[in-house]
Amino acid sequence: MRRIVSDEALDILFRNPCKASAWLDRPVGDTLLRALWELAKLGPIPGQSAPELILFVRSPAAKEQLLLALPPQEGTFMQAAPVTAILADGTEGATPIGRSVSGAARQASLRAAYLMLAARALGLDCYPMWNFVPAAVESAFFPEGGVAATHLCSLGYGEDARADPDPPRRGPDESCRIL
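Above: the chain's sequence. Below: its structure in token form.
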């Protein structure tokens, strides 16, 4: 028999999100980043169950390199974050099961979502960034080639008082159909 998670867990994961707009000056340690990986890799995905690589960018020098791939506003925010995750997949030797271009993109998006859910479950706040130049990330962090940067997500402890509220979302009558 499966159990349903508590209301408190649902609040943390879904109902009371904090997409940070400012970060507390609190580091994210290596042990927590490893725990994040251990949870995120468990999400159900056809084929491979985890990204081939998550590069956690924390040092000022690495952040300066990543800054070149971001628009100014997101670059400033990324630099203030304790850490930013670069999710990447190998582009060579991909297996045919679920690894078409569209299949790989779907898997990468699912893995990014699992990473964010795992981060929230571990007490971290997330700021996903979709507006970046993948080629700039790849040349700076994967110069050997064979790797495609798929997603970026800044992680840390958000300053709750300055959290960006999500816009109102449609209700089930507008969004769902049961056939």
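Strands lie at 53-57, 83-90, 125-129, 147-156.
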